[in-house]
Amino acid sequence: MDINDWGLVAAFASSIAAIGAAIASFLALSTAKKSKDISEQANAQTMEIHNSEMLAAQRSQVIAIWGYLSSLSDIDPNSPIGVDVIKNMNTLELVAVCCEGKMIDKDVVLRTFMDTYINIYEVIERLTKVDLGGGKIKSGKDIINENNAAQEFYAEVKKLKIGQGKIKNNG
Q1: What are phi and psi of 24, to 5 degrees?
Q2: 137 φ, ψ to 5°?
Q3: How far apart, in Å, are the Cα atoms of 152 and each of 30, 78, 97, 128?
Q4: 113: in domain
Q5: Domain span holding position 122
Q6: Residue 114 counted as domain residue
Q7: What's the total number of domains in the chain?
Q8: How do residues 70-129 score in pLDDT, each as one tens digit?
Q9: Each residue of 141-156: pLDDT tens digit?
């Protein structure tokens, strides 16, 4: 073999090595893509399980606050009892904070408590004079203004209530 033959062998060997490297790169890339797909699928399943567990936990907490919700008292607008007004307002605030913090399932609260929430809020809002004892007298609006979460939740609930039954256009 002369020098040209050796150059040809070296070129052929280099070509084979380059093809081998290309195949190895392709296989590595394919394996990496499959690994990424499996990882993304596992992450999606993990998130789905997490969301299901979180929803179950939120729904179980509705039971924990049900006692507060079911013990709300009617308020006589002509002679409101300060303790009852504050108890009702505190319950509205508790529900709002729990929904805001995603401690309870808002959908369950809305399904079971939307009308009651709106009614109690509006009764308190219309009160002009609530004797809180110790010489403290406030209006219902003053009491509501001390409960930011309840105000925000009321606005959201009221908007949902107004939109109930609305015709939805699909295009």
Answers
A1: -60, -40
A2: -130, 130
A3: 51, 27, 10, 21
A4: yes
A5: 58-163
A6: yes
A7: 1
A8: 778 889 999 999 999 999 999 999 999 999 988 888 888 888 889 999 999 999 999 999
A9: 999 999 999 999 999 9
